[in-house]
Amino acid sequence: MESNNNESLIQLRILGMTTSNRHEGASILILAEVEGIKRIPVVVGPAEAQSIGIWLEHITTPRPLTHDLFVNYIRMNNAIVRNIVIYKFDNGVFFSKICIATANHDKDIYLDSRTSDAIAIAIRTNAPIFAYKSVVDSSSFAFSEISNDEEAPAIDVDKAILPTKPIKQIALKELELKLERLIKNEEYEQAAELKKTIDKFRNSGQ
User: Which CATH number fits domain 9-143+164-203: 3.10.690.10, 1.20.120.530, 3.90.1150.10, 3.30.70.1050?
Assistant: First the structure.
């Protein structure tokens, strides 16, 4: 992976997602240290929240999403996603890079990316998620009591305590809003296909 003046990297995992009180229509994805108590809240848009939620809940969509297309292209060219790195945090915005190994695996290329897109791609390729220590130190909060069921803690992100919701609930809400828009625009064929996905989503895990 690409280094940044030999600064250490910290591996992260997805802990949960919550709706945002401050950013209308947005969600907050909570990343946690794999080994540690720090948590990083990342604001993601509705489309990215839906894409992340659908994949983590193992829901099959009628047509591939944009992140699926990217991953399919990478694989068709015999390349692999090695990892993603959140390399900067500035004025509340995270900056990330996607590390891709070329077909012969003799060269790595780095693509600048929105962090939400990078994470959506990482989970589709089982690529590890890293952040520079300086990013973690400047953007995280500590949570000293981790519950056994791995539920995400309440966080003071939007100047108010926000109880987290399961990722499935966030993604389902976005799908239902999209269905409403399709029906309103009289796009009934697409609405029917999306309705099938919503039904599968609701029935999954039951």
Answer: 3.10.690.10
